[in-house]
Sequence to fold (120 residues):
Amino acid sequence: MEANEIANTSDITIRVGLDKERVPVKIEWSASDMHKDGKLEECKALAVALFDKEHRDTLRIDLWTKEMQVQEMDRFVYQTLRSLSQTYFRATQNKKMAEEMAKFAHYFGEETEIIPKTTT
Fold:
């Protein structure tokens, strides 16, 4: 099998329930290889970033439900920042910049009180 030959596929489904003002009130998602029966999992927020191959630009979808609280959004953003620094390192092996991103994530976590402040 060649390196770029597709061996399998997975479909990701995102369903967003909107109120009359088109504000998300329910977000559900599933991947075809996650639940064979198509069962959807509920979440309060999602952030999807896609890099457009042709235009070399990033397309984003950021949604959260009305019931998402500020502290939950702080935690969501903190965890997203942490995981982005890890993703960046795995993709580039640029340890210096990954560590700088992780430092900012840590700072963000402390300032939003998601994690306790470290004393130095």
